[in-house]
Amino acid sequence: AAGSPEDPTAVCLGSTATLTVSATGTGLSYQWYRGTASDESSPVGTDSDSYSTTALTSTTAYWVRVTGTCGSPADSRTATVMVAPLPVPTISGGTSNTCPGTSVQLSTEAGKVNYQWSIGGSPIEGATANSYTAATSGTYAVSYVDSCGELGTSEGYPVAILACLPPPETAPGGTIATAQSWSGKQTVTWPVNNEATLGYHLYRGVKADLPNLLNSTTDSCTRATTPDATSNSTAGISEDPSSVAGRFYWYLVTGLNGTGEGSAGNATADSRIVNSTGACP
């Protein structure tokens, strides 16, 4: 009786494999064949219970017929020797940054050696791990050597790094109610600006000073800071503009995100009129 050859693990391109078979009986002889079981068109090997293949360049099937002194010949099942394909690295990750982020993370298969990332066909100095942080627009590729010592290079992977801008100018909202007493505290509300991911700054000053409201060295009364885009109001604002011309102050709202603060631009602002005196809280 003949057993079946054990399938070897995958071999590297150009390597050989050794097949063995177990059989019982007397006066046993062996004939190995290349192909699927019962295909006798390609006999190979010697009269032995093992067979070493020639150098393999593709996946190949083998089988063996065992003949004994007694009984009929016994054919094994097919044993398939897999030849590992050449490596083809793949790149995964983002293709564009999400502001305020200014880069994307790229990665390829782990467990290889001699990694090298490139952009536009030029190697990137120091980019020799299985991951890379891309901060420049271009077409990236990665190469590595697999366990068979074969070098593979990925296809090009386009990445677009977009410029991140501060949020646009934020309007101050509706008219602020007139107050006859500066000590009457009010809630100031303005429209939501979804790009103001880090919230808002509320400034106050006289109209002529609007261009300077974002200058921390000249603005001594930043009225409020809020934490996110949906926090579009602030309570408890009280002012005393009685000593300035017209006896009113102007307000300016700016949006903030990871890139910076929105421009003051030519924003309009609303006034608040008072009739009594006091000090800036």
Summarize model confidence as the mean pLDDT. Answer: 80
Radius of gyration, in angstroms, nearest whole number: 39 Å
Question: What oligomeric state do these chains adopt?
Answer: single chain
Q: List the helices and strands in order.
A: EEEEEEEEEEEEEEEEEEEEEE
- Helix content class: under 10%
Q: Which blocks of ≥5 consecutive residues have pLDDT under 50?
A: 173-182, 215-220, 265-281
Question: Can you walk me through this structure?
Answer:
By secondary structure, this protein is mainly beta. Helices cover 0% and strands 33% of the residues. Strands 2, 3, 5, 6 and 7 form a five-stranded antiparallel β-sheet that branches. A hairpin with an 8-residue loop joins strand 2 and strand 3. The C terminus is likely disordered.
What topology does this entry show?
Elements lengths: L17 E3 L8 E6 L8 E2 L5 E3 L7 E8 L6 E2 L3 E3 L10 E2 L10 E4 L5 E7 L2 E2 L7 E4 L3 E8 L5 E3 L3 E3 L26 E4 L10 E6 L16 E4 L7 E5 L10 E10 L2 E2 L9 E3 L8
Antiparallel strand pairs: 1-4, 2-3, 2-5, 5-6, 5-7, 8-9, 9-12, 10-11, 10-13, 13-14, 13-15, 16-19, 17-18, 17-20, 20-21, 20-22
Brief summary of the model shown:
The chain is mostly beta strands and 281 residues long.
Q: Which terms summarize this structure?
A:
22 strands; mainly beta; 5-stranded antiparallel beta sheet
